[in-house]
Amino acid sequence: MGLEEKLPSGILLTNLEKMVNYSRSMSLWPATFGLACCAIEMMATGGPRHDIARFGMEVFRASPRQADLMIVAGRVSNKMAPILRRIYDQMSDPKWVLSMGVCATSGGMFNNYALVQGVDHIVPVDMYVPGCPPRPEMLLDGILKLHEKIRNETFAEQGSK
Amino acid sequence: MVEQRSPDRPDTLVDDDLFVEGADWESVVDAVGDDILTVNMGPQHPSTHGVLRLVLQLDGEVVQQVDPVIGYLHTGIEKSAEYRTWVQGTTFFTRMDYLSPFFNECAFSLGVERLLGIEAPARAQAIRVILMEFNRIASHLVWVATGGMELGAVSVMTYGFREREHILDLFESQTGLRMNHAYIRPGGVAMDVTDDFEERCLALCDLLTEKLGEYEDLLLENPIWNGRLRGVGVITVEDCLRFGVTGPLLRAAGSDWDLRKAQPYCGYEQYDFDVPTDDAGDSFSRFLVRMEEMRQSMRIIRQALERLPDGPIMVDDKRIAWPSQQSLGADGIGNDPAYIQHIMGESMEALINHFKLVTQGFTVPAGQVYQPVESPRGELGYAITSIGTNRPYRVHVREPSFVNLQATNHMCAGQLVADVVAVVASIDPVMGGVDR
Amino acid sequence: MGADLEALRAVIVDAFPSSRGEIAFGELTIHATPEIVHDLLAWARDDERVRCELLADLSGVHWPAGDNEIERQPATTGWPAYRLERDRGVIEVNYILRSLTHNHAFRVSVAVPDDAPRLPTATDLWLTANFHEREVYDFFGVEFTGHPNLTRILMPDDWVGHPHRKDYPLGGVDIPYDNDKFIPSPDTRGLRQVVD
User: Fold this and answer.
1) Fewer beta carbons below 10 Å: N end or C end of chain B?
2) Parallel/antiparallel/unpaired status of strands A30-31 and A69-73
3) What is the CA radius of gyration of chain C?
């Protein structure tokens, strides 16, 4: 069928978008952004048993400029919210946000004066992981689903965020 | 200093720039000597243990002043708890210092029990002690792990989290959760331990004893670890008391103050254990003290397992005891089928009692108590005020991390920037506890 | 323990006759007035028989005037009904003092009116009072005169109100952040002085 038949073996045809997204999803670099209890589980995810390195994500970047995934791990207080937004703005495009745990997702059990009721009030969120705190397996599941999402995004969608 | 003129503007003297020519180094140092550089560290920084912000005033590499700025994780837990029942309070407080959930639950429960004038049964007390001591080990393991990571020893981090997973497995098998258990309740504990509890604990103790030796092999003689920690962040006992510093920091300075010995709770007076101390008062002695504390915790655990009494795990008083009986089924932890049968099919009164206790909770006599326990970070105190309703009127938590953090400036001043990381790591603040 | 507390109470009330000691739930509470509290604390730190090296805790409780703020719920468990003792519009500040030498602890309780709460600072006695007093100021608005740096500690600097007062609602605070708009940090103050 057309071009493929004429190709020597070992060459695959795809479109650029898929190729780029595939590479991006396979080496997401999360920013070190631990807030509360969930951060401990995030570190456990990076630890030897759960080993996030299996998904090309072991490089937790200390500088947001080098990161393209922000895992908001924990409760976001009103005092922290502007800083969180600033860190998000510092990250280079394209970037994704994963809201880990119920506190980051909706304020959780702390519906009070101190907390922002959901980090999506401040930054656009791509994936929500439930749990208080989510087990490392749940975080990994959320990350894999995010990979899937990234693979199916178009450049136009990524640019419009 | 040699007078320099800019090549493109020969008429103006370049007095802002400093040109160093060998012998005039002294004058250059004098010229920059007045410049205090203010550096902001955090709240998003990989080496500040969470969302701690430190404002450093630097004279070159030397730290003049460290100013901790906190509150970036303020959750309003104390206020939220005023709007929930007493039993729901444990659910809040366990999320406060998330590395030592059992200590928070236990201190709160002990305070409520004092107000109620009850005491948890002996079996519940022993289970509390075992879980708290395992929690102390888990917390110290995270300290070794993150402290090592912050000082560049990444392998220690993977080691620490590896062993911690085993302890969390034990917690999960008994309480259903890895963290934030809400297992210790006013009046006892939520459910009895499983049949293989003793076996699991002993196996875990054996494993940890072996692995702790591994840490010491890795770190004790390690020149970098020694160089980064020895003589760094020294504090004396007198200064500890002035700053209110308790816990491993106070013991590393030389005092043997430990609330488990001084004011025993949960039956700690029955157990034979030592309070490790050191006299250098620097970050390295804190490491030694914490390592020894983990060993002593295992001594306590073994003794508690040996004499784990039979009997109930919750007070007998049906007005207080959490009514639902929980058990481990195929689908995890849930209500015991026999108990469901009892309230749904047999006893209307039991159903009413269950309903009232779960929805309204019990009332607690009016009064004020202050209940301290020895948490992995120091004196964790719950100042509870009740006015005789089914909710706390006010709960204030004396968090050891919050208090210990005040000594940062004292411990860092005059040292190098890199030492700030070592000092903050050795204080081991948990920001969830600091900001509450 | 009980006899020790009785003796301790006698010692303290002897030295400060205007204070009142009360023992409940195995704890000694000394009720003092704002005028004498600083002298009492200084004395408790230095006196040989009391010798409280450690200020273990400092916290506040708000008792608003009237009983409209406190929802009393009917007792379900048969304990006697409780009459609210302190509803006079006060903020009660509790100091927990601990002695390592004598292994005792007691509470010093001071009530200040909640419309103009003011107390002398204890930072000159124990440096640990620094953060504690800032926290009580932040949450209750108690002004500690002589404190070297009395600013908000846990809430943002531009926050309005003192959230742990009983007349402050639990939630209902608008979320002041828009989705796509960058908001600069409210934390624009200069460096603060830490006591040392």
Assistant:
1) N
2) parallel
3) 19
